[in-house]
Structures are given as structure tokens and as C-alpha cells.
Amino acid sequence: MRRDSRLSGVLHVLLHMAEDDTPKTSEALARAMCTNPVVVRRIMAGLREQGLVSSEKGHGGGWRIACDLNKVTLRDIYEALGQPEVLAMGNRTDMPGCLVEQAVNAALGKAFDEAETLLLRRFGEVTLAMLSADFNARFKGQRDKFNLEKAHDD
User: Which residue windows are transmembrane per the record (predicted)?
Assistant: First the structure.
């Protein structure tokens, strides 16, 4: 089963965008997310609807951060993406009348719900500013070497 990596990819490009105030094209963001520019435009349009990014059309246009990194959490981004499934596992539902399946699903369902609640709570505790600070600590003194347009070239 392929995992949904949109949250990770979007956080990645948002941090790149936060480090450089120039507009970023869908093509440049697509290279950073290893996806198609059409996918990026669809995702970024959803973020724009939530006021997280803005866009400018035409030559020199592109996407920009439009939010306060100190106020936006991972949960805000997760919700702007449409709240994708956070767990890859789920209950089996082939035999709903089977008492064994019911017992297993009750136990697993409770554990899955608790894990999701804990994860989403943690998402609400981490801001984009915190991720940016971590990035800056990791790449102190290497700023000129780290550029969205060049960092993801093959």
C-alpha cells in the first residue's frame, strides 16, 4: 500500500517558501515534491482557500506564504489537505456478522482511534515556525548552498 505523503511534501515546500520570499512556480514546487505541477496547483489551491498561501499570475508570479508561521500548525496544514487518512491500517469488514471479527474490530478500532487522536493532538502542537527553526539550526552557515531551485535537481 502506498502511503499518502502530501502532508510531508507540502510542509517541505512551505518551509522552502518561508526561507525565500520570491514567488515559487508550480513547476519548481513540483520538482521539490517529486510530483506533477498540476498536482501542486490542486494542492496549493486548497491551501490558498485556507489563507495559507497566495498566488500571483503571469511572468514573475507564483506561490507565496501568506500566513504567520508562528500561528499555523501541522494540524492546520493537515486539515487544509482534506484530512487524509493518518493510519495505513484498518479493520477488516468482510464478515460483519462474525463475532470474532466484531471482537477484533472493537479492540483495533479503539486503538486506532486513540492513536489518531494522539497524532492529531501532536500535529496541533507543532507550528511551521518550529519546523523553520529546526531547519535553520540544521543548515546554519549553509544558506547559500540551499535553494529550492537547486536543492532538488537530480
Answer: none
Number of helices followed by number of strands (H, E) in the chain: 7, 2
Which residues does 125 contact at the CB level (< 8 Å), separation at least 6? Answer: 73
Q: How many CB atoms lie within 10 A of CB 45?
A: 12
Tell the CATH topology of 6-88+127-151: Arc Repressor Mutant, subunit A (1.10.10)
Q: What is the pTM of this model?
A: 0.82
Q: How confident is the prediction along the chain (154 residues), in pLDDT tens digits per residue?
A: 567 888 998 999 999 899 888 999 999 999 888 889 999 999 999 999 999 999 999 888 999 999 999 999 999 999 999 999 888 888 988 998 999 999 999 999 999 999 999 999 999 999 999 999 998 888 876 655 555 556 655 4
Domain map (residue ranges) of the chain: 6-88+127-151
Helix, strand, coil percentages, rounded to 5, for the chain: 55, 5, 35
Q: Return the closest-CA partner of residue 39 out of 6, 15, 86, 3.
A: 6
**What backbone phi and psi angles, to 5 degrees, belong to 84?**
-65, 160
